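#struct-pred

JT: dropping the chains for the assembly here, can someone run the whole complex?
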Amino acid sequence: MSRHEVTLLVNGDRHRLTVEARRTLADVLRDRLRLTGTHLGCEQGVCGACTVLVDGEPVRSCLALAVQCDGASVRTVEGLTAGADADVTGAAAGAGGLHPLQCLLGEEGGLQCGFCTPGFLMLLTGVLEERPDLDDEALAVVLSSNLCRCTGYRPIAVAARRARDLYTALAAGAAPDTSPDDAPEGPCN
Amino acid sequence: MKPAPVDYVAPRTVADAVAALADGGDDAKVLAGGQSLLPTMAMRLARPSLLVDVGRIPELRRLALDGPAHPGAVRVGAGIRHVELERGAHVPGALGALLRTAAGHIGHVPIRTRGTFGGSLAHADPAAEWPLVALAADATVHATGPAGDRAIPVGAFFETVFTTALAPDELLVAVDLPVPAPTARSGFAEVSRRAGDFALVACAVLVDVAGDVGGSVRRARVALGGVADRPVRCAAAEDALVGRPLGAGVVEAAGAAAAAAVESRGDLHAGPDLRRSMVAAVVRRALLAARDTPVGTAGPVGVPA
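RK: done, full complex below.
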């Protein structure tokens, strides 16, 4: 059993840690850095709850050893809030520093128990930052990566499409209008 | 569950990786993207004593379209990730189209950002996409071990479920994929329970058609996944194609020939009759995709970061 010194840049903060080789990135985020927003469901790469961004790309943090991520930049759901994502949050910041994606999921009822939510948020963030122009069908295939046992997925898909429209507008340099005509009172407005 | 305790090294060269594998003995295991190995470790189905992480070897991260060492072939480094072949448009023509389409069927986005081409071949799941594509494309697999380098034709590489011609102390380094004729066309089709699941049945085809699309098929390679203990070529379908134009009737006949030729006992996902009809469907769909995709379809040529 070997132990290794690793450096992780997590949500902009540099951490130097000694970890066992067998520890996954998810374990280190949760148990060592106490960033428990990253949830562990199946621990075998099926449910997607532990999705985080590694060097900007969505990764299942239960399927990456922390030693493999030495030197990498990691973003977790904690890094979505308040200022961590200036472009998008500046354009449509919600109450309490919530990221617009979080607001949209709340407005659409895209979560109930919330266990899967951090995984969906990070999956969508990573995908939309790279491809803000995904069509509805491609977006549905992307969402099929992660499991949700509460919502039946439809409200998550609706929120994801609104998020996509927001990212598309930002990519085009337009001022986004994220409110549908019949926008309900939500956590962000 | 959590993986059992394990030792770990991350060599920077192929030579150091091979030495580490030899030193580690029978229970040493190569770790590439980890998208198959880490789940089996988490389930304690695998308990390697040593992981040799090949993710930090620059040599494995190269993708070269043509070169003196591999004339007429694209060389894909073992560490090229699925997502790089999916989004990159690195490879022109029918081969590039085949790689991009097949990559999009592998797992989900967060799997494709880590899993590697070489890792998938070495893992040798009989329903996986890359082994099937490698067979259709007539690949040559390059491995390095303590005794030196070795080139293995793809037909001799896959032995049975999760078993290849690689020795335990050999490392898969790169794969050469011959560039098909400019008139060649490719297609890929898959049936799975849900998006991202392993294929129940999948088919990859490369066909060379004389002249425009109305011409006769000169050569055909039809490969099937999910029907045997390894990806297999389907001679019956190939024979049904060669010398004939890719019309609806010929495509239908090739699918029927493939369905008749597979040995299908069925399993819990699908009985033998359903499996045969799925084989006919994927062969037909792959051939129609090949016919209807314009020759020369490819994005800009480039190399992944």
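JT: nice. The radius of gyration of chain A is 17 Å. Chain A touches chain B through 31 residues (CB under 8 Å).
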